[in-house]
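Q: A reviewer asked whether we had any structural model of the full assembly, not just the individual parts. We don't, so I'm hoping you can provide one. Inputs are below.
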Amino acid sequence: MTGEALPRLQRVAWGRVLRDAMLAAAVALVLAIPLVGFQTVEKNAVLGISLRFGWVAVGVAAVFAGRIAIALLRALRPSPPAWAVPLRLAPLRQTRIFGALLVVFAAALPFLPFSSRYLVDLGTTVLIYVMLGWGLNVVVGLAGLLDLGYVAFYAVGAYSFALFAQWFGLSFWEGLPLAGLLAASFGLTLGFPVLRLRGDYLAIVTLGFGEIVRLVLINWVPVTNGPNGISNVPRPSFFGMPFDRRAPPGVTTFSDFFHIAFNPGQRIVFLYYVILALALITNAFTLRLRRLPIGRAWEALREDEIACRALGINPTTVKLSAFAIGAMLGGFAGSFFATRQGFISPESFTFIESATILAIVVLGGAGSQLGVVLAAVVLVTLPEFGRELAQYRMLLFGAAMIGIMIWRPRGLMARREPSLRLNPLREPSG
Amino acid sequence: MSAALLEVEHLSMRFGGLVAVDDLSFAAREREITAIIGPNGAGKTTVFNCLTGFYRPGVGRLTLHRSGRRFLLERMDGYRIAREAGIARTFQNIRLFAGMTVLENLVVAQHNRLMRASLWTVGGLLGLPRYRRAEAAAVETARHWLDRVGLVERADAPAGSLPYGAQRRLEIARALCTEPALLCLDEPAAGLNPRESAELNALLLAVRDELGIGVLLIEHDMSVVMGISDRVIVLDYGRKIAEGTPAAVRSDPAVIKAYLGEEESDELPPEIARDLVERA
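A: Here is a predicted structure for the entire assembly that you could use as a starting point for your response.
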């Protein structure tokens, strides 16, 4: 800030800045009185309220000062700050290198020096959401069908595996494909009635579908055990070898076979690698589909359904295939979720899950595989890292989402890579 | 005179009380460019929408003859008309896949052929050589048409980023990539400058002569209509008021009346009126 900055500072419209800051402070006051000002406390086993107006005053003053600071910063630096300029996204090659590095990191994670059981567990959760995001990406990102009930397929996958295991004694590896198929058929079931719908209308029907599945799970007690859920879902085995301290007669445990000491962490690491493999297969599968006629038809459908029909593309099959494949991937993720938790109940499949998965797709940049990974990492780990902030972590979460939408309105990775090229890509030389 | 490709018999289409098309009969032939003209609101685009399955006509029979087979269009879904009967169309307001590249637009147009070659995705997932050959052939077809409309350089750019005239040409190229028997163009010259119009004329004549397909054309630009049409059909208020060669149509009193009105009412764009009067 040199002498040049001062004349600019004098040109600041102080009246407007102050008015703006007062308005912001007033809004903050209205919000802060109920949110911060009152705190429920227990006094002699009776619920009472303690007043915290001091904190309200601090918050309002901070908003007031912050608003003025923003106005001054803008006046001093009229050009948008560097981090607000859309990132010039790396061409294909750099994206690939970054993706490969990410895979190497993910594969090495359990053996890195700073790794812990908690971190691997968190990584597993991230990867479940990555997989769900990739599945929903087929429906929302590629085919452009806004689906607010994606969690229904996740639930179908989880419950079908748990029930197959309970009734027919199927193991995880036998139940996984069946769960995927069942979820895909649910995708078709949802697809048929909504064929004519688009946009907001489609979103509402899919939202309803998600709720229907959840309510059926709660109320169909003889089959689903209702709100109590299903426990003792079998754990996955390593080629038939369970991760237990002691195996039933005739079965060798993983630790015995490899002559290593039993450690409950082994299963956690194994689960991590299972979901990593599933996610990588999902990625390869969807990337491949995108380059096939069906994938291009999905994108064409997103761009213009009428033009699709005029070109002889049957929109019904294109839509249904997108719903079915998206649902199948959700079903795989669901059965993994069931085997990892060992217990499932309708609680796990509420609307907030659908919203989180959709947020991952939208924040990542609809249609971008790498964007989904970044968004899943942000959305899953942010609330975790914010645990010290206790009840304010959701505030942080919301703020981060708003921030991404302001600075990257089309998602973290908004660049679309063509599915095929006529002229070979010229790498920029500079 | 070549064989009739498309026969429209007694086509009527009404929207509530409005009769958009009223007992219209005409035929379009192979290796001919048939133009449908008429004042705004005469029902031209409605005829197209009936032909391509976007509207279901109230009355009438629409028959397309293709390689010895007969397709009754009024009973077919829109996508089957394009896929089986082989009617490709463009739109008055361009409908490209704007976010996809120029090349992808042309490859999507070959969807059904590629779908079969990829064994409905299974073979494509397995990477069968049959699919890879089919995809290479589709790209070659696309390159051929891009070359014809002068867009090879822009092949990997998003279609929505092209200038208007290029988007019109691309939409025609995309329709041709479906290997149609009949190409329906809804105002292809709208918004083109005279040089682009002349290029369009040359392209359409080449399409007619080389591919031997029929072209059905809705157009207001009289330089296009009079320059390249083999036959002209004039609609007014949904009815056919004249049909014949361009020369015969432009001297038809009923046509002049429809365009210019009986008295001095001048609702026609002045350049068309001037053009008609000059040629008459």
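A: Points you may want to mention in the reply: Chain A has 17 helices and four strands. Chain A has two domains: 12-79, 95-246+253-407.
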